[in-house]
C-alpha cells in the first residue's frame, strides 16, 4: 500500500519438513521492559502450496522465533501463542508485541513468531533477494494466501515435533498481521482456536469502506487538538506550491525545512510532510515509543503544540518544520533531512510494493474539502500505471474480498465465524476499515476512542492510561474463556 498498515506479505516434501535449530539465544529489548529472549529457527517451507507442477517442489527456509521459558509443556496441553508475521522482519514485530510476552506466564504459553515469506530472512530462491524480487514470475509466490498456508504448515509441524497435538493455538497479529490472524482463524479453524486481530483493516477494499475515511481520521486527529493547527497544515500545501513557483523558491523551501543538498521538488517535500502527519496519527500512542521513529507520548498533540507555539516562528514553514521534527528528529540528532532516503530498516520494501500492486489494494487516498490534505479523489488509474510500469501487471482490487470475505461481513461471520477479537483505536486512520461492532458473542469488537495502531499489543508501561489497561484485561479474559472452552470439549472427546 502507499501507506503501509502496520507495519502490513515450500517444495512438496512428503516427509515432515526439516527444522534447522540454532542454539544461540538472541535477544530484543524494549525500553520499558526487561530483555526478552527467543531462539531463531528455520523451517523448510514449500514455495507453492497450491500447484503440483515441477516448479512447486522448490523450497525455502522460513524463519521463526520461539520462546519456551513460560511453556507448561505438552503433557499439560499448555497453549501455543503464535504471531502471524507482517510485511517486514519478524524480530521487529516481536520487539513491539510485548502483550504476548506479558500474557504468556498467565497461561503457561509457548510463544512463536513466524516471519512472512519474502521478508527478513525468509526469502525464497536460496535467499537471493535479487532473484526473488526480480520480476512477476518469481514474485508471484508472494501473497497472503501463500503466507497463511505457510503459517498453518509451520504450526502443525511444530506441534508434531513437540508432541503437542492437543495444545491449543491462539494467533495474534497487528495491522496486516492482524488481517492474517483473522483470516487464518477463518481459513484454518483446525489450526487455531482463536485470533486477536489488532488494527486489522479487513474492510478497506473495493469501496466497502470509503476512500475518504483514512484521511478523514487523520484530519480529525489534528483538528481535535487545535483548530489553528489544522488550518495551518491545511493551507500550507498552497503556500508550498506558491513559494516553489517563485524564482529561487525551491531553495527557500530547502532551507526552511533543512533539507539536505539532494534532489528537491514539491512532490518530495509534500510527501515527506504527509508521511509525518500520517504516521504520527497512526502511532499516536499515550506513552513514548520507538516503533517507527523515536517519538514522545501523544505525538499529534506535540505536533500541534509546536505549530501553535509562538517560539516556533512566525511563518508557516518554520511551524511545519517544528512539527515535522516531532516525527523525524525528536532526538535532535539530524542536522538535515534527505527527501529521497531509500533506507529500509525494517525490510518492508520491495515486498510490500508488490503486494500493494497485486491484492492489497487498500483505499486510502481520497480527500474531502475539509481534509487536512489537498482535496482529491482516489484514483485506481494511478495505482494501475505504477504497477504496469514497475511489474507489468494489473492489480486485482476485488480479490481480497473474494478470497476472505468483506462485504456484509457482519451477517456472514455471524453464520460461521467464532473466537475472533477485533481491536481498533479510533485515532488510528486504519480503524476506518476495521470491524467496529460485535458480530456475535464470540466475534467481538473492542473499540478505544483514544487508541492508536495496535496499541494493545505493545509492552505495558507504568504510564498506560486506565482505558488501555482495561482493553488488555478484556482481551485476556476473552482468550481465557476460549481456552477454558477448548479444554472442556477436549475432555469430552478424550
Topology:
Layout: E1 19-28, E2 36-46, E3 59-67, E4 80-84, H1 90-95, H2 98-107, E5 110-114, H3 129-132, H4 136-139, H5 144-161, E6 169-174, H6 176-187, E7 194-198, H7 213-225, H8 227-244, H9 249-256, H10 266-282, H11 299-308, H12 316-328, H13 351-358, H14 380-391, H15 399-404, H16 409-416, E8 420-425, E9 443-448, H17 466-493
Parallel strand pairs: 4-5, 4-6, 6-7, 7-8, 8-9
Antiparallel strand pairs: 1-2, 2-3, 3-5
Helix pairs in contact: 5-6, 7-8, 7-10, 8-9, 8-11, 8-12, 10-12, 11-12
Identify the quaternary structure here. Answer: single chain
CATH superfamily of one domain: Serine carboxypeptidase S28, SKS domain
Order of helices and strands: EEEEHHEHHHEHEHHHHHHHHHHEEH
Helix percent band? 25-40%
What is the CA–CA distance across the termini?
47 Å
Give the name of the CATH architecture of one domain. Answer: Up-down Bundle
Structural class, judged by helices and strands? Answer: alpha/beta
**Could you give the count of β-strands?**
9
Strand portion:
5-15%
Strand order of the largest sheet: 1-2-3-5-4-6-7-8-9
Rg over C-alpha atoms, rounded to the nearest angstrom: 23 Å
How would a textbook summarize the main sheet? 9 strands, mixed
CATH fold group of one domain: Four Helix Bundle (Hemerythrin (Met), subunit A)
What's the pLDDT, averaged over the residues? 90
The shape, in one word, is globular
Enumerate the spans where pLDDT stays under 50 for 5 or more consecutive residues.
1-34
The CATH C-level name of one domain is: Mainly Alpha
Q: Please tally the helical runs, counting DSSP H or I stretches of 4 or more residues.
A: 17
Amino acid at each position: 500500500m502507499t501507506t503501509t498498515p502496520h507495519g502490513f506479505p515450500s517444495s512438496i516434501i512428503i516427509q515432515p519438513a526439516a527444522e534447522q535449530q540454532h542454539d544461540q539465544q538472541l535477544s530484543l529489548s524494549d525500553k520499558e521492559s526487561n530483555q526478552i529472549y527467543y531462539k531463531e529457527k528455520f523451517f523448510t517451507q514449500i514455495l507453492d502450496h497450491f500447484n503440483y507442477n515441477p516448479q512447486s517442489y522448490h523450497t525455502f527456509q522460513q524463519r521463526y522465533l520461539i520462546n519456551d521459558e513460560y511453556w507448561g509443556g505438552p503433557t499439560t496441553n499448555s497453549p501455543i501463542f503464535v504471531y502471524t508475521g507482517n510485511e517486514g522482519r519478524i524480530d521487529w514485530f516481536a520487539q513491539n508485541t510485548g502483550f504476548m510476552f506479558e500474557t504468556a506466564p498467565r497461561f503457561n504459553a509457548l510463544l512463536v513468531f513466524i516471519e512472512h515469506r519474502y521478508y527478513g530472512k525468509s526469502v525464497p530462491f536460496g535467499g537471493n533477494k535479487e532473484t526473488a524480487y526480480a520480476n512477476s514470475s518469481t514474485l508471484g509466490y508472494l501473497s497472503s494466501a501463500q503466507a497463511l498456508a505457510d503459517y498453518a504448515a509451520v504450526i502443525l509441524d511444530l506441534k508434531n515435533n513437540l508432541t503437542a497435538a492437543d495444545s491449543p493455538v491462539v494467533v495474534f497479529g497487528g495491522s496486516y498481521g492482524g488481517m492474517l490472524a483473522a483470516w487464518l482463524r477463518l481459513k484454518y479453524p483446525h489450526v487455531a482456536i482463536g485470533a486477536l486481530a489488532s488494527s486489522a483493516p479487513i474492510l478497506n477494499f473495493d469501496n466497502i469502506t470509503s476512500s475518504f475515511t483514512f484521511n478523514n481520521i487523520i484530519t480529525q486527529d489534528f483538528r481535535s487538538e487545535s483548530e489553528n493547527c489544522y488550518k495551518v497544515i491545511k493551507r500550507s500545501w498552497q503556500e508550498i506550491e506558491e513559494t516553489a513557483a517563485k524564482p529561487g523558491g525551491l531553495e527557500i523551501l530547502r532551507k526552511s525545512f533543512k533539507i539536505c543538498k539532494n534532489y528537491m521538488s514539491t512532490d518530495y517535500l509534500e510527501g515527506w510532510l504527509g508521511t509525518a502527519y500520517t504516521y504520527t496519527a497512526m502511532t499516536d500512542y499515550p506513552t513514548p515509543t520507538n516503533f517507527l521513529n523515536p517519538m514522545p507520548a501523544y505525538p499529534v498533540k506535540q505536533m500541534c503544540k509546536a505549530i501553535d507555539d509562538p517560539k516556533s516562528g512566525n511563518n508557516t514553514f518554520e511551524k511545519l518544520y517544528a512539527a515535522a521534527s516531532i516525527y523525524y528528529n525528536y532526538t535532535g540528532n539530524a542536522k538535515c533531512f534527505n527527501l529521497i532516503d531509500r533506507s529500509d530498516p525494517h525490510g518492508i520494501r520491495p515486498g510490500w510494493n508488490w503486494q500493494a500492486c497485486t491484492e492489497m489494494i487498500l483505499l486510502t487516498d481520497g480527500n474531502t474539502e475539509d481534509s487536512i490534505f489537498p482535496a482529491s479523489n482516489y484514483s485506481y488509474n494511478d495505482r494501475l500505471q505504477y504497477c504496469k510500469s514497475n511489474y507489468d501487471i494489473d492489480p486485482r482490487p476485488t480479490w481480497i474480498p473474494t478470497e476472505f470475505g468483506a462485504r456484509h461481513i457482519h451477517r456472514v461471520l455471524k453464520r460461521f465465524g467464532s473466537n475472533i477479537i477485533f481491536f481498533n483505536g479510533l485515532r488510528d486512520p486504519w480503524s476506518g476499515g476495521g470491524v467496529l461492532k460485535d458480530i456475535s458473542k464470540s466475534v467481538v469488537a473492542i473499540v478505544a476512542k483514544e487508541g492508536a495502531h495496535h496499541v494493545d499489543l505493545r509492552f505495558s508501561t507504568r504510564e498506560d492510561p486506565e482505558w488501555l489497561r482495561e482493553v488488555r484485561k478484556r482481551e485476556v479474559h476473552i482468550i481465557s474463556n476460549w481456552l477454558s472452552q477448548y479444554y472442556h470439549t477436549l475432555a469430552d472427546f478424550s
